[in-house]
Amino acid sequence: MSERMADYIDHTLLKPEARREDILKLCREALENSFYSVCINPSYVKTAVQELSGSKVKVCAVIGFPLGATTTAVKAFETAEAVADGAEEVDMVIHIGALKNREEKYVLDDITAVVEAAKGKIVKVIIETGLLDEEEKKLACILIEKAGAHIIKSSTGFGPGGATVADIELIRETVGSRMGIKASAGVRTPDAARQMIKAGATRIGTSSGVNIIRK
User: How far is residue 105 from each of residues 128, 147, 159, 199, measured CA to CA in Å?
Assistant: First the structure.
């Protein structure tokens, strides 16, 4: 597998039982394989920033994860703290219930608050495709773009299903070339990663990055 594939990968560890030593191992793997970033829970941002100091590997923190149902103020605070700790990117979860209820202003304001709190850092927005129908997925994409976020992410990995080629194609069709797309959850093989990239993904969120690039 080419080094270019490694440039797509957000090397991920979001399990609740993850320990500091597991995060350090994740960072070492990211360094050894030149992954784009590590994606971790906010409490470990300082640890990862210190471990990756001087490298090109970025630190990404998840926000409102994995349910997306915390209040907007909490998401904004969590974002600001993660950025202050050194996170260069954040992956927030939309309020899925509000989206399904067509509360467009709430969803838009929720995302906008995180974008503003991130102060120019990259914001990815997780829509949890497994819980949405096609029209809801399209609406989510429209609101995310309107809020000024940068990348649409398919899934948390904690909900039903994960990234599918059909969903990545739908997102790409909806936003054109204006935004990035992160295919996340269930991408475990080189072939699966290539399929997602062909469908329009610009990032791959996976805990199987090492296996993907070494096969």
Answer: 19, 10, 24, 30
Active site residue 191: no
Start-to-end Cα distance in the chain: 7
How far apart are the C-alpha atoms of 95 and 88, rounded to whole Å?
A: 23
69-81: per-residue pLDDT in tens? Answer: 999 999 999 999 9
pLDDT reading at 126 higher than 80: yes
Are the C-beta atoms of 185 and 154 separated by less than 8 Å? yes
Which superfamily, per CATH, for 3-214?
A: Aldolase class I (3.20.20.70)
pTM over 0.85: yes
Q: Nearest to residue 209, comparing CAs of 186, 194, 189?
A: 189
Domains of the chain, by residue range, sit at 3-214
For tokens 């998401």, the residue is: 75
The residue from 91, 110, 121, 124 that is catalytic is 91
Determine whether 81 is exposed, middle or buried from the number of CB atoms within 10 Å of its CB (0-12, 13-18, 19+).
middle
153 annotated active-site: yes
